[in-house]
Amino acid sequence: MTTGPSRKPLPLVMEQPRGRAKPPRHLADLTRDERAAAAEALGEPAYRVKQVATHYFGRLVRDPALMTDLPAATRDKIVADLLPTLLDPVRTLEADRGTTRKTLWRLFDGALVESVLMRYPDRATICVSSQAGCGMACPFCATGQGGLQRNMSTAEIVEQVVDAAGVMARGEVPGGPGRLSNVVFMGMGEPMANYKAVIGAVRQMVAPAPDGLGMSARNITVSTVGLVPRINQLATEGIPVTLALSLHAPDDELRNELVPINTRWSVHQAVEAAWEYARTTKRRVSIEYAMMRDINDQAWRADLLADVLLSYGDWGWVHVNLIPLNPTPGSPWTASRREDEQEFVRRLVAKGVPTTVRDTRGSDIDGACGQLAALDA
């Protein structure tokens, strides 16, 4: 069966291009010890950095004029050194009556990334980017078609979350002031290919104020297309985030086409790593599966998917999240027929695999899963 244009195997080296300048150092990049060293370099007592951190993480404030507990003579200098501007908003688009907001950001070197804030009745979720572009080359994903520009820094990732938390706190989303409750690493990039910065950002999110945002690790989801060594490493971090494995096919023949990294780590290797993560952390894993008409939505593939997952046990370690394919420019594929989607769900549930269909948001502003392309036009 032909699934699309033939593709060369993905290179085994997935690092960002070398020779790029690094973003300015930011408070969110620093450990507690490094913050003390930063204060010393500024000629300030260590508690000054703690004061700035309290404003940034606890009060979601960046404006030095609002940090009146800092000495007026050095306030601007301290804040400029610890909180340099990392993300400049280019534009914000809204959908779903303003409860979905997609922001295009320009980074210090001109690279563009996007984040999406979604408010629901019971929660508010920010979908963050971890790389400018993506090197995984999945042909149905707009981000993957643009290639990888560079990894984002820990602080560039955290800044997306702090901005969203501030937007919620100030009541800028319909529904009044609220709290940002969830973070999903499902924006631009492959989080596990930028592992150090992503884990650094997660640690800043879960650390209690003033060291971080004080969020629950259980409300943070880290997705991956299946970088097995990094999944294994994540299981040892002691941070019980939710792991989401973007599988999209239960057989190697098709997944080699849809998710080229599968030529390095197969379906069974990726699923086994996910199972080990669930076994180690006692956290249920989410299997992400984009439904593509006549490509991966056949009933027999639902049966095969269930068999693959249940071969590791039926103790509730996994949940399947079906995603109606979102349209991207030039893509030859479309979303599954409603009846095929329903049959896929029926077969998974009949075999005892918990399954839901994602409530897709923001597709009309190219803000849904697989649509982020960061186009400045």
From TrEMBL:
One of its GO terms (molecular function) is 4 iron, 4 sulfur cluster binding. SUPFAM superfamilies: Radical SAM enzymes. It comes from the Bacteria. Residues 1-25 are annotated as: Disordered. It is found in: Cytoplasm. [4Fe-4S] cluster binds at C134, C138, C141. Residues 120-364 form the Radical SAM core domain. Its cofactor is [4Fe-4S] cluster. GO terms for biological process: rRNA base methylation; tRNA methylation. This is Probable dual-specificity RNA methyltransferase RlmN. S-adenosyl-L-methionine binds at G189, E190, S223, S246, L247, H248, N326. It is an enzyme of class 2 (transferase). Its EC number is 2.1.1.192. Keywords: 4Fe-4S, Cytoplasm, Disulfide bond, Iron, Iron-sulfur, Metal-binding, Methyltransferase, rRNA processing, S-adenosyl-L-methionine, Transferase, tRNA processing. One of its GO terms (cellular component) is cytoplasm. Reaction proceeds by a ping-pong mechanism involving intermediate methylation of a conserved cysteine residue. InterPro entries: Aldolase_TIM, Methyltransferase_A, RNA_MTrfase_RlmN, rRNA_lsu_MTrfase_RlmN/Cfr, rSAM, rSAM_sf. Its main location: cytoplasm. PROSITE patterns: RADICAL_SAM. Specifically methylates position 2 of adenine 2503 in 23S rRNA and position 2 of adenine 37 in tRNAs. Belongs to the radical SAM superfamily. RlmN family. It catalyses: adenosine(37) in tRNA + 2 reduced [2Fe-2S]-[ferredoxin] + 2 S-adenosyl-L-methionine = 2-methyladenosine(37) in tRNA + 5'-deoxyadenosine + L-methionine + 2 oxidized [2Fe-2S]-[ferredoxin] + S-adenosyl-L-homocysteine; adenosine(2503) in 23S rRNA + 2 reduced [2Fe-2S]-[ferredoxin] + 2 S-adenosyl-L-methionine = 2-methyladenosine(2503) in 23S rRNA + 5'-deoxyadenosine + L-methionine + 2 oxidized [2Fe-2S]-[ferredoxin] + S-adenosyl-L-homocysteine. The keyword Transmembrane helix does not apply. The active site is at E114 (proton acceptor), C369 (s-methylcysteine intermediate). Binds 1 [4Fe-4S] cluster. The cluster is coordinated with 3 cysteines and an exchangeable S-adenosyl-L-methionine. Gene3D superfamilies: 1.10.150.530, Aldolase class I (3.20.20.70).
